[in-house]
Design a protein that fits this description.
121 residues; mainly beta; seven-stranded mixed β-sheet; four-stranded antiparallel β-sheet; 11 strands; 0% helix
């Protein structure tokens, strides 16, 4: 069984910063892409940022220049540094990882439990 455990959410004022972490554990052979998604109340889940195992990153236009995704492959952990936060960044943030749990085997998507990020104006 694989678990993704997130930490680092909370309440911050506009213009502030937060850092989210997500550690994958369990029966893991290898991890491909990792990423962060978010879902605001009444909205669909949307992509925030992704990072490949080789470190290639991709960001939603709304967070470019403010958020930075990174990962530590040795620790099976992905991070999201969020700076210059805005009230519209308020959402539940979910980490995602594409993980292979057996060899040979296919990669499957796993999700964290979600971390609330609230930005006050």
């Amino acid at each position: 069984q694989v678990q993704l455990v997130e930490s680092g959410g909370g309440l911050v004022q506009a213009g502030g910063s937060l850092r989210l972490s997500c550690a994958a554990s369990g029966r893991i052979v290898s991890i491909n892409d990792m990423g962060w998604y978010r879902q605001a109340p009444g909205a669909q889940r949307e992509l925030v940022a992704t990072i490949t195992s080789g470190g290639i990153t991709n960001y939603a236009d709304s967070v470019k220049g403010r958020f930075t995704i990174s990962r530590d492959n040795a620790k099976n952990t992905v991070y999201l540094q969020m700076n210059s936060l805005k009230p519209e960044d308020t959402a539940v943030y979910y980490c995602n990882a594409n993980i292979r749990i057996s060899w040979p085997g296919t990669y499957l998507d796993y999700w964290g439990q979600g971390a609330q990020v609230t930005v006050s104006s």
